Sequence to fold (711 residues):
Amino acid sequence: MNGARKSSSSRVYNKRRSLLTIVDVFNKSHGRDDDENTTPGGVFKKNAKTFLTTPHSRRQKDLLLLSKRSTSIRTNATQQQRDQQMLRKDEEEDVAATKQPRWELERHFKFDSPNDSNIDREMDAIETKCKEFKAKYEGKLSSNAALLESIEMFEEIEIELTRALSYVSLASDTRLEDMKMQQRKASLMQRYGSLQGNFLQWFSLEIANLEEEDIEKQYKMHDGKLKTKYKAFIEEERRSKPYNLSKEVERALTVRSAFAGKRQVVEFYGNELSRLRFPLKDSENGETTKEVNMEVLLAKMTSSKDTKTRRECMNILNEGLVKFERTCALSLNMVAGSWHIENTERGFKNLRSQRNVSNNVPDEAVDSLLLAVKTTGVDLCKKYYRLKKGILKETQGLEEFTWADRNATIDIGTGSDSYSWEQAVQICKDGYEKFSPTMAKHFTDMVENKRIDVPAVDGKRGGAYCSSSYGCGPFQLLNFTGTQRDVATLAHESGHGVHFILSYKQGILQYHPPLTLAETASIFGEMIVFRDLLERAPSDQDRLQMIMCKCDDIINSVVRQCSFDAFEAKVHEKRQNGQVTPEEMTEAWKECMVDYYGEEGDVYDSYKDTSHLWAYVSHFHNVPFYVYSYAFADLVVGALYGVYAKQPEGFEEKLLDLLSAGGTKGFVEALEPFGLDPSSDTFWSDALTAHLGGLLDEAEQLAKKLNYVSQ
Ligand SMILES: [Zn+2]
Fold:
């Protein structure tokens, strides 16, 4: 990565990333620790950067669009998963892993290998077509029926590009140590970048700039084909129009951003963060210490069942970050400063509007989400941690509940936490089947047609994702080690897969759901499988453990991320009046902890060693004001699940319709058939109550029944 960044073509590099496999729209981590989302070097970070580092509008639009052609929705490995992967590297596991199914890309993409010369021939043909496209239509979109013809040609180019590049990109993800393969991918992506920049980029800006009457006139031609088939695409292109600057200014920003500005500093911050090392005591004998990176440290903290170890890790983490705060503050000052200037120049209304426009969500919806989380969400969150504190006291003898215990496992289950691949498939199939035979069928097809790369083997990208690979996909990359969480990941990624399959019929330009709905099928799928497993859990202890784990996940996605957002807002507001010091950032962080989790002594007895944790949340640097998206996605699905739980009849059909619509419906319109109105005052608090509140009640009843807390 560093090499590519240093090259003079870093803008091209940046674009390449967008197609390169992953655009994690929500990157919904299954981790019980949200901090997972923020660890350095995560795929999310790298890819989200494609949005961040580009000036708004044209480039951003292009990136967004192109990324949609072959987007992958990615779930990072959780710390626990990684920890387990690390721990499970014994021979027995390796043998088991080699027997697990691999995806068969060649069969679906019809190439022999990434070195297949047919790929180069196709790229040559695409290049010729791209040149023709530009020569034929640039500056002429308003004449006659040029819009329909040009979009059709653009669509063809996109499909062809996706096939070649998606194949190479996926293939290289299972051979990361093969340098020749990585080189091959890099050179193809570079080629793609130059095609994009030289022959395709103009298209988005020109569509955005077309006069309304020209579009209306063309909508009436050809029996309305343009409107029926491509309206959503055209509207998406045009949404950024009010914020576009002149062609010359956009071009200057684009050219300049590769060499100057915040990007270099943000990258420096990210690189330094991944280089941080923390002195961890050797568990064998407390005498010696070893230097570990942050991922290992966090994994140790979240997986430890010993409160003393957890606190030590927290202390080491916080101390280690103190030394890093100046670098972090420099980067954050640059990001917030340039965000502020750009907002003014482009005319965005408030702090988050720029992000909201790219997420296609009205400001009001986001504001009301944040308010609901700060009120209803915080109440539920405190209630949850009081319960957790009580259970940990009974089961682990915990006297003082600290921040380090927040994600501790409630280790009371009696059932096995190990599943074979076949069992995992059966569990997901059963879960999906109960809800929707259609979804179950698509799931089974993915398994049977070798669209899933299962084992956790060396040289493979970590975590999990589902790539849409329009025209040939979908494909899932997993790192399956047999834990319950791995089963949930399969359910989640399969949800994305089913969503893609259902929406492909909208065409490559419109099949991808808006960011606000991109996680619908995945989180919903995970939820139905979770519910099915819960019903079949062998004991109340297992059930309680599972529900507590789920609540940890939800609170980390919802409340924690919104507390991050609140911190970000404080820093950005201060930045408008000048530089913000690291001390001021620490203060803002502490205030947010209290706002979202209560004063010390309220629920948490101590926030010791948490004052510098703001320094490692890389989202603040890479994608300003993105964090609320996690809460958004989780709660939209929570609301849907609430409707389903109350009234299962007829729900499946409506959900399949929603999924099939792909990107042709915004979230307000898509939620209408369910009787949900996201603009209503109570939408988010109802969702919180249905989603988190329901689970919390169940957990409380079980804990009482098992005498972990008083009646
Ligand atoms: Zn997902």
